[in-house]
Amino acid sequence: MSDQDLDRSCVIRMRAGDTGALEELYDRHTPMLYGLVLRIVGRVADAEEVMQDTWLQAWRKAATWDPGRGTVAGWLVTLARSRAIDRLRSVGSRQRAETTAPPPEAAISADEPAANAAQRQRQERLSAALATLTLRQREVLELGYFAGLSQSEIAARIGAPLGSVKSWTRQGLMRMRELVPQEDLT
Amino acid sequence: MTVHREEHLDLCAARVLGSIDEADRLEIERHLTDGCPECERAIVELSQGAERLAVSVLPVMPSPRLRATVLERVRAEAAASPREREASDGRETERTGPPTRTSDAPRRAIELPRRRRPAWPTWALATAAAVLAVSTVATWRAADTLRGELRAARERVAQTELDLAVERAWSAVAMSPGARVVDLAPLTGGVSLPHVRATYDPASRRAIVAFENLTTPAGSDFELWAILPDGPRSLGVVRPDPSGRAEVRVPDAGDPTALAAFALSLEREGGSTDPRKPAGPVVLAGSVKS
Questions:
Q1: Could you list the residue range(s) of the whole structural domain that residue A128 is in?
Q2: One domain, residues A68 and A43
Q3: Which range, B145-149, B192-196, B281-285, has the best average confidence (pLDDT)?
Q4: Does the pLDDT of residue A168 top 90, yes or no?
Q5: Which CATH topology does B180-287 take?
Q6: Higher per-residue pLDDT: A157 or B134
Q7: CB-based contact (8 Å) between B46 and chain A?
Q8: Which among A54, A173, A178, A184 is the top mutation candidate for probing chain B, defined by the most B β-carbons within 10 Å of its own β-carbon?
Q9: In B, which residues are within 8 Å of A69 by CB distance?
Q10: Looking at the DSSP assignment, which residues form a beta bridge with residue A97?
Q11: Chain A 96-135, CB below 8 Å of chain B: which residues?
Q12: DSSP annotation string for B225-267
């Protein structure tokens, strides 16, 4: 059974009230989600609160997950990222998180056993894929996704026309999809 | 319904990335309300691109305390409002309101349309349907095979392109004008020590560490470390090939202002149990600071 099948089965069990299913999902996806949240909010205390909110929402909204609209992992990423961006805005620490460098906590604990070799390899491939985008494509994706800036804010920040920011966003996302087949994410 | 335009795809991308401006959001929501197959397909594809952005971040394991807190809160919530299982149609759904007794609801009689006498004999229609079905299945299978081959070929090209990009990214470490090359020097004697050279690119924060004459004593392993202001960080156990060579690629060796040195320790087989502290002696080290 693939990870995606396992994830789907977990969500169905969560709908029936099985907390063990959420535990399984937590163990499978937390390193990736926590890395993302930490990258956005920049502080461990904020990241941990965001993670708590994320998993509680996942529990409450299990019934609303629609398999036709994407993977469970994608759904969890959406939940975590939107809460991380909300937190980023509320604590006014946007400036801090706009740096491309991950916070020190990320580097320290990244090699712990649970961040297993497969995840590291997958991350490495995706990081390399990101590096192949044009500078502008990468810039708009990072400012939009990790720093939570709107497209007009991005245009003002990098001094580019809004229309170009829109095109780079679409081109960058499609390029990321093309460069890494879906199978490599599972 | 608004007519689909190319610009709508840009708005879909902004929406997926979460960076859409309010006016654009209203426009695309209005456009999607009545259904637009092109935009809906694009949203699925673009979402996959966004998912890859999330996975491109270094995975990090939070403290076990967080896991305990999350599970405790979820269990408390589950206990406070238990969900009910709706198994009447074989599917499980969550009830958001009070349960209703469907078994007590009056059953509505449904009148089926009357069957008309067929204009053609049944056997003729059945034969025609069978012929059509066979030819449709054959065509579908052929098209499906071609689609599969095309998809596999595209994936192979994408894979090769990505492999090439990965190799380019790593070769850029050595080519970087700002690259720092460090030969790790012995700190101790008594064991046969390898020759170790680390090349670190401050711009990408990548490092490649090459090993020669790496002979691991029985029951031991060499483990590579990055030395940071708040202590060592394990970069993993190093295992040589039969010729005694090894290469460790470090995707993120740390910020150039923070990374002080690389070091090699001699550990029990499997490496140090603590990823932030060598358990055995540090036998080689080299400063990265220029």
A1: 116-186
A2: yes
A3: B281-285
A4: yes
A5: Immunoglobulin-like (2.60.40)
A6: A157
A7: yes
A8: A173
A9: 44, 47
A10: none
A11: 101-102, 104-115, 119-120, 122-132
A12: EEEETTEEEEEEEE---TTS-EEEEES----TTT--EEEEEEE
Asked if the Cβ–Cβ distance from B166 to A74 is below 8 Å, we say no
- CA neighbor of A65 nearest in space, from A13, A111, A106: A13
**Model confidence at B236, in pLDDT bands (50, 70, 90)?**
confident
Q: Do A77 and B46 touch (CB under 8 A)?
A: no
CA atoms within 13 Å, Cβ hemisphere of B208: 13
Among residues B57, B43, B248, which one has the least CA distance to residue A129?
A: B57
CA distance A119 to A125: 10
Chain A residues close to B10, C-beta within 8 Å? 166-167, 169-170
Cα B166 → chain centroid: 16
Asked if the model's pLDDT at residue B11 lies above 60, the reply is yes
d(Cα A179, Cα A184) in Å, to the nearest integer?
10
Contacts of B12 (CB under 8 A, 6+ apart): A170, B28, B39, B42, B43, B46
Domain of residue A56, CATH code = 1.10.1740.10
Q: Are A80 and A88 in contact (CB under 8 A)?
A: no
Do A62 and A96 have their domain in common?
yes
| Structural contact between residues A123 and A34, judged by C-beta atoms closer than 8 angstroms | no
User: Chain A interface, mutation test: which of B60, B72, B161, most A Cβ atoms within 10 Å?
Assistant: B60
Q: Closest Cα partner for B154 from A177, A79, A162?
A: A177
> Which B-chain residues 57-116 have CB contacts (< 8 A) with chain A?
57-63, 66-67, 69-71, 73-75, 77-78, 82-85, 92-94, 96
Contact call for B166 and A154, based on CB within 8 A:
no
CA–CA–CA angle A176, A181, A183 (5° rounding): 140
Q: What is the mean pLDDT of chain B?
A: 79
Closest CA to B227 of B159, B285, B155, B154: B285
**Average pLDDT of the residues in A79-83:** 93
pLDDT one-digit tens code per residue, A40-68: 998 899 999 999 999 999 999 998 887 77
Same domain, A15 and A93: yes
Rounded to two decimals, the ipTM of the complex is 0.81
Residue in B with minimal Cα distance to A125: B166
